[in-house]
Write a structure and sequence with these properties.
Layout lengths: L1 H55 L3 E2 L2 H18 L3 H15 L4 H12 L3 H20 L2 E3 L2 E6 L2 H4 L2 E5 L18 E6 L1
Antiparallel strand pairs: 1-2, 3-4, 3-5
Length: about 190
């Protein structure tokens, strides 16, 4: 009986150790994966920006100001994907200048976005910007396509939209925390 009890205790200890060791390795692997993804994301941010700009040219607009504003909107989105408050501010300031005379509502939103230094508040304002851009973009595409994307987890599960030049998800509401969270909700041609 004692021998059986010792054997059972030994097996339990070994099994418990394996579980803890395995979970510890898994955590280390997850941490390493997250670190590697952040490193890769930083290395490829310039590549991603130039890819986005190249893909922007596939969508053509019937209004030069709208085309320029969309490119600047994409710069705002990309800066939020990178969780870069300063770059977001700078891109929003350019958007504000571009649309100052064309669309005062979007210019005002871009101005607030430009003045804000907290990236989480910038993301909330970006939501307003996306909603204001919706009718402008849908009515101005003459050829090519853009993608209206949606993250169901944004803003505590309420979800929200953004526009992109690629089907690939790059979430501006979470950045590298949940980079690929989302889906293409609509293709606008």
């Amino acid at each position: 009986m004692k021998k059986r009890l010792r054997s059972l205790i030994t097996m339990s200890l070994v099994a418990g150790s394996l579980v803890l060791y395995s979970c510890g390795d898994n955590k280390k692997e997850q941490d390493q994966t997250v670190t590697e993804e952040k490193h890769e994301m930083n290395e490829s941010s310039e590549e991603m920006k130039s890819e986005e700009m190249a893909q922007t040219s596939t969508a053509e607009f019937n209004n030069e100001k709208v085309s320029k504003a969309f490119q600047q909107y994409i710069s705002v989105k990309d800066a939020l994907v990178q969780t870069d408050a300063e770059a977001t501010s700078n891109a929003a300031a350019e958007l504000q200048i571009t649309l100052q005379e064309e669309n005062s509502e979007i210019a005002e939103i871009a101005g607030r976005l430009s003045a804000e230094k907290n990236v989480n508040v910038q993301r909330e304002i970006f939501s307003e910007l996306t909603a204001a851009m919706d009718p402008v973009l849908k009515g101005a595409i003459s050829s090519g396509k853009i993608y209206k994307q949606f993250c169901p987890m944004a803003f505590e599960g309420k979800g929200d939209y953004w526009y992109a030049t690629s089907e690939e998800i790059r979430n501006p509401y979470f950045g590298d925390k949940m980079l690929k969270c989302g889906r293409v909700d609509e293709t606008i041609q």
